[in-house]
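Schema walk-through. Below, the input block comes first and the output block second. Nothing else is stored per chain. Lengths vary across the set, and this one has 158 residues.
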Amino acid sequence: MNPLVGNNDITADKDPKHVMKRCRNFTIRKSGVMINSFVVTPALLRFHLQANKVPAHRIMYLLNPTDRQDVPLCYTFMKEVWSLPPPAPTDKPSFVAARDALLILGSLFRHLALPYVQVSLSFVTNPDTFTFFSTSFHHIPLRAAPMTHTAYEPITDP
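--- output ---
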């Protein structure tokens, strides 16, 4: 815990479960999220989860927009996204572009979640833990940005 506290003993620390919930909730919004100039929407997520043989009832559970506080649901959703395989060489270009965007999103989710749920990742015993956090924070400003209703501007790599 951060011993440097502000007024009323409030720290800048953020509870990891809230970070995971925010990631899931901004991803399943109707307007979607833009990743490398590609808009990822709930419909696209549904299509790619179905293509990965995720059962329909599980997809409905994972993409339920009214359940915004369920932490196990958030983790499960993030894990399903980071478990998507790369596209096959025979896949259509539109499928490949969408899957590439989802792989970036999955990488972000994986690097955000694992340090909080994997006991072996500790700053004290495993210096690779820093790599997980730095990789996840690298993805956020460069790759993913929530869509607005007025601006559909591409986000490009530097």
